[in-house]
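INTERNAL AUDIT FORM
Audit reference: QA-55
Scope: verify that the stored structure record matches its stored sequence.
Auditor: D.O.
Record contents follow.
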Amino acid sequence: MKKVIKFGEDVDRYEIPVLNEREIRAAAGILFVFAFLSVLLAAMKGNFVLLKYFILGFLVDFIIRLFISPKYSPTLIIGRLIVRRQVPEYVGAAQKKFAWVIGLFLVLIMLVLVVFVNSYSPITGIICLICLIFLLFESAFGICLGCLFYGWYYGKKAKYCPGEVCEVNARHEIQKTSWVQLLIVLGFIAFIVMSVVLFNDAFSVKPSDLFKIIESARSK
């Protein structure tokens, strides 16, 4: 039973239980897609059905992660299958547990407000936004925002962070950003803003069926 109910896995050369960051990122990406679609459907169409199902699935998945074992979490199992050919990147389980407790707390609030009370408000909107940001940073950038709070809360550094961000290391040359690169980013932002100003009216025209356009061109 102890082998079943255990948070993290024992790996040689690591002092504490660890998890595979690659499968965690994959699982976060899966959750982000469904969360984004659910929130988009609720915001644009006023349809909260998918969001309610997502909340239930998210809740069950995180209960399994925290109270049984991450290795039996459905999304982490899928993530493991997706990245099974990649070399594992081990991270400390303790900070991940702290981050997932935050996630469980947020989804419990959503369960009460959205599923039980069947309501929406700025509170649920803010929680959805927080969850989307957390999942995006985890899946796209490999940054566990919840893990950052672990060090602040316990007043100590976490062990085995992804990318060795817990350690004070000098940046490699390839990681450094020059003023030219920053100016390019600012120029790109300015280009997008100018595009909106110049082409907004043209881009707002509703698209037509391609085959009808071709047929109309032939008939002329």
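Auditor finding: record pair retrieved intact. Helices lie at 21-45, 49-67, 74-82, 93-116, 122-141, 145-154, 179-203, 210-219.
Action required: none
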